[in-house]
Amino acid sequence: MRKALILLIPLLYLSCFQAERQCSDFKTGTFTFNYTIDGVEKTGTFVRTEHYNIDFFDNKVDSASIRWINDCEFIQKDLHPKNMNEQKDIHFKIISTDKDSYTFEYKLAVKDPYKKQRVEKGTATKIK
User: Fold this and answer.
1) In this structure, is residue 5 part of a structural domain?
2) CB 3.0-4.6 Å disulfide test: which of 73, 86, 109, 128 passes with 30?
3) How many whole angstroms separate alpha carbon 38 and alpha carbon 18?
């Protein structure tokens, strides 16, 4: 019994650990990220200012406005949508940060009542 208690106490402390986030370090800058299309992994770049996000991927440029909810969350809206899907706002949340990168998750800002909510994850690395 005593041995079980000794093993249980450190486990309790570890379960209370929460990843430290320095989200304000990643509000603006130039970043790279990896993405996969049709099984092919590619690298894209984006530049984020306080109010805009400009993506460079597959020899294309895409721009979006950004509205920050707090230091770790923002809503992104495509400035020039080409179809109905691109008109939908996307909610980004920074989950954890490292020295020069952060892990995030994103989903549609407004849930479609007829579809299951899809949450995707990614990692971005700050290069400037």
Assistant:
1) no
2) 128
3) 35
Contact in structure between 111 and 117 (CB atoms under 8 Å): yes
C-beta contacts of 87-95 below 8 A and 24+ residues apart: 94/21, 94/23, 94/26, 95/19, 95/21, 95/121
> Which CATH number does the domain housing residue 58 bear?
2.40.128.490
Q: Is residue 14 part of a domain?
A: no
100: containing domain? 20-126
Q: What is the pTM of this model?
A: 0.77
Please say whether the beta carbons of 102 and 124 come within 8 A.
yes
- pLDDT tens for 70-82 read 999 999 999 988 8
